[in-house]
Structure formats: C-alpha cells, structure tokens
C-alpha cells in the first residue's frame, strides 16, 4: 500500500502525549520524516525509543516550549538543517489552563494558557511559513477544541484561546492562497487522554464537562477514538481533502470521510465550517446554498 506521507517532513508540537503522539505514530506509519516537539524530555525519549522503536532519519525529537520564540525558531532551523524542507506543521500542543469560575482564575495561569494555545500556535506557524512560502507548498493543521464555537463554562482561557486559533487559521488560509498552502483547524471532540485527568480532579469546578468526561471514562459514551483524529490529520497533511483550507473540521460530526471534490468546492464558496456571527447578512450569504 502506498504511504501517503512518503518524502514529507512533518513537524508535530505536543507530540509526546495524547493526540499529538497518535499523530506522530500515524505519520511515521505513512512514511513521513517526523520531528516531534514537546516540553517533557522524558516523554520524548519514551516516544522515540519505546513507541516508535527505532531512531533514524525518519524521526527526530526536540524539547521546546512553543511559547518561547527562540526555541521555536531553533526547532525549525534544526528541521531544515536535518531534512532540508518543512512540508507539514501540526500544532497539537495545548493546555486547559485554570479550571473554574473566571473571576477566581489566577491571571498568570490564565495568560499561560493563552501563550501556549494561541501564541505558541502563532509562533510555530510563523516559523514554518518562512520555509513553506518560498517553496509555494505546505499544510498547516491547528487544533481547536471545546469552547471555540460555543461557551465552555469554567474553561475561559481554553475556550478563548481555541476560538482565536480558529480565526487565526481562517486568516492565514486567505493570506496563503497565492502560495498553495492550506491551513485548517481540527476539533477533535472529547478524546480520552491524560488531559482529562485534570477535569476529573477538578470535580464540580469543571462545570458540565466533569459529568461528560466521567461518563466517557466509565462507559466510553461521547468519546472520539484517538485514531480517528489522527486519520483526519493524515488526510489533511497528505492533501487528500481537495484543497480544503480555512475551515474548522469536527472529527466526530462532519462526515469528512465521505467528502467529494464537489462537496469541498461548495464549502469553499460559503462560510461553512467557519466562525461567523449569525445575522441577516450572513443568513443572506447562506440562503442560495440552503435553498438548492
């Protein structure tokens, strides 16, 4: 079977745990040279030595803080030095930030979540695009999440940062049209990772999400398989989505496995799968499509 990411260099932030790690494993299986970036050096060593089981030119790892401009710059300089190209960037690094009522949140922790989720995504996009734009080719995949399209009580920093990531995605997608670079955001749904331990530890302070995560852990109900998230990312990275760009794709809800070129062409001509205010102007823009 042909490997969909053969000869591609893929940089994955937050790649040592959870969704990021699942994407790393999937990309390696699909033939990519993968650069894994994460803060925890011990987790990186585990991914390289145990989960992948080999060290060669197909896999590199670097301990960095995505909110540190100098470290992000070094990540991409090292990637170019080692592989000579950057084809795909997956921004999977993320944190929940403070959990509980916004007026009780520690300002430092609140800002830290914004720095990791939003500023870190921006820094990585900025550095990757320095190499993708001259090459006139590339794929950027950002991660949205709960709170991006509707309120997520008790997670204000997380929700605000993830909504901003979607708008950053839309903006970059339009700026990069002349350079054949597609930028999309992925909403993974509720995935059972170590991040959910924080929700359970917070109990009632986590609001409605606590019961949802508890139910997922106990019954599996409402959860999204982590392999399904990785599959969507691979498809986007491999350019199998017919030029889709500037969209927020929900892993569990959007039926992306069945999209045809005609479906994507329709989406690209409308504000479908984007953040828009629901008002008369937006409704009129949608009306011709809805009445077909």
The name CATH uses for the topology is: Rossmann fold
Strand fraction band?
Answer: 5-15%
Strand order of the largest sheet: 3-2-1-4-5-6-7
The number of distinct helices, counting runs of at least 4 residues, comes to 10
CATH architecture: 3-Layer(aba) Sandwich
- What gyration radius follows from the Cα positions, in whole Å? 19 Å
Portion of residues within helices: 40-55%
Summarize the helix and strand pattern as letters. Answer: EHEHEHEHEHEHHHEHH
CATH homologous superfamily designation: NAD(P)-binding Rossmann-like Domain
Give the CA-based shape.
Answer: globular
> How is the main sheet built?
7 strands, parallel
Unreliable spans: none
Beginning-to-end CA distance, first to last residue: 39 Å
CATH class: Alpha Beta
Mean pLDDT: 93
In terms of structural class, how would the helical and strand content be classed? alpha/beta
Describe the structure.
The protein is of the alpha/beta class. The chain has one domain: Rossmann fold, CATH 3.40.50. It is built from 10 helices and 7 strands. It has a 7-stranded parallel β-sheet with strand order 3-2-1-4-5-6-7, sandwiched between helices. α2 links the parallel β2 and β3. α1 crosses α8, α3 packs parallel to α4 and α4 runs parallel beside α5. The relative contact order is 0.12. The mean pLDDT is 93.
Topology:
Elements lengths: L8 E5 L4 H12 L3 E6 L2 H11 L7 E5 L5 H15 L4 E4 L15 H29 L2 E6 L12 H20 L5 E7 L7 H8 L5 H12 L6 H12 L10 E3 L10 H8 L11 H11 L2
Helix pairs in contact: 1-8, 3-4, 4-5, 6-7
């Amino acid at each position: 079977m042909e490997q969909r990411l053969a000869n591609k260099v893929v940089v994955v932030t937050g790649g040592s745990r959870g969704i990021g790690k699942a994407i790393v494993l999937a990309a390696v299986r699909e033939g990519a040279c993968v650069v894994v970036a994460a803060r925890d050096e011990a987790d990186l060593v585990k991914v390289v030595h145990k989960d992948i089981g080999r060290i060669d030119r197909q896999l590199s790892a670097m301990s960095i803080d995505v909110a540190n401009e100098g470290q992000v710059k070094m990540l991409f300089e090292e990637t170019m030095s080692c592989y000579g190209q950057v084809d795909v960037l997956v921004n999977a690094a993320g944190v929940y930030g403070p959990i509980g009522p916004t007026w009780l949140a520690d300002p430092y922790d609140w800002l830290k979540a914004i720095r990791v989720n939003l500023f870190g995504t921006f820094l990585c996009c900025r550095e990757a695009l320095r190499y993708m734009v001259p090459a006139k080719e590339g794929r950027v995949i950002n991660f949205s999440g709960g709170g991006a399209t509707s309120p997520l009580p008790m997670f204000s920093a997380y929700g605000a940062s993830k909504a901003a990531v979607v708008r950053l995605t839309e903006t970059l997608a339009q700026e990069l049209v002349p350079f054949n670079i597609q930028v999309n955001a992925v909403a993974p749904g509720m995935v059972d990772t170590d991040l959910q331990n924080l929700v359970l530890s917070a109990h009632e302070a986590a609001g409605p999400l606590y019961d949802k995560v508890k139910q997922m852990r106990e019954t599996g109900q409402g959860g999204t398989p982590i392999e399904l998230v990785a599959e969507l990312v691979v498809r986007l990275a491999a350019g199998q989505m017919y030029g889709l760009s500037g969209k927020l794709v929900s892993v569990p809800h959007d039926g992306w496995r069945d999209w045809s070129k005609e479906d994507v062409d329709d989406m690209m001509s409308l504000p479908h799968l984007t953040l828009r205010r629901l008002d008369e102007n937006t409704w009129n823009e949608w009306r011709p499509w809805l009445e077909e």
